[in-house]
Amino acid sequence: DRFRRTPVWEGYGYDVRRSQRPSAVLVIGDKKAGASARALMKDLFLLDRLAEWSSLPVRIVHCVRNPFDVITTKTMRNGRTLRWNMERYFETEQTAAYLHDQLGPGQLSRIYLEELIAEPDAALTSLLTSLDLSADHDYFDNCKALIFDRPSSTRDRQPWTADDIADVARRISHCRHLSPYVPSGSGAC
Fold it and tell me: Which of 130, 62, 68 is nearest to 96 (CA)?
């Protein structure tokens, strides 16, 4: 309810109220991927219980961002070590990969931040289609107004050792959905 009244999270605005929202959307998630993934790691039946409780179909949207940026941002915000944040990040992504395999694309839709920024109309259309929704042009325009011109490259603000880069690259190779983020042969993230 707080987010509905003030749709801001970590300084980013999510208010698209000025347009006609897709009418079938009644609730959209909690933007707490880490906490949700940890809860699901402990009890995978949570989704079953949610589906039993809800009169609406349960759908999950997984927004994927460059792992190096996510890990760096978490490290800068929570003051923990890079290694600690790497562990948490890959726990979350492995849970997301498992859920995608178990639920399938009908229940878990994936959207990549870079695609959303580069081609917002196509990415939003694909996402809404996967959710069996449609929206008017005003909704698309208002969503696009909230999207940055380029992804934030926080990875450039954190020193990464060659070993850390290699470890993240190795772990990325174990998560198919992260394959677009394998560092180039230069070893740089």
Answer: 62
C-alpha–C-alpha distance, residues 69 and 158, integer Å: 9
- The residue written with tokens 């970590």 in the block is 10
Residue 169, SS3 per DSSP: helix
- The DSSP line for 33-80 is HHHHHHHHHH-TTHHHHHHHH-SS---EEEEE--HHHHHHHHHHHH--
Q: Is the CA virtual torsion 40, 45, 47, 49 positive or negative?
A: negative
The single residue listed with the structure tokens 């109309």 is 121
Residue 60 near residue 103, CB atoms below 8 Å = yes
DSSP characters over 6-36: S-EETTEE---TTS---TT------S-HHHH
pTM strictly above 0.85: no
Using alpha carbons, select from 127, 126, 124, 177 the residue that is nearest to residue 147. Answer: 124
For the cut 70, the answer to whether the pLDDT of residue 10 exceeds it is no
| pLDDT digits 0-9 by tens, 68-109 | 999 999 999 999 999 999 999 999 898 888 888 888 878 888
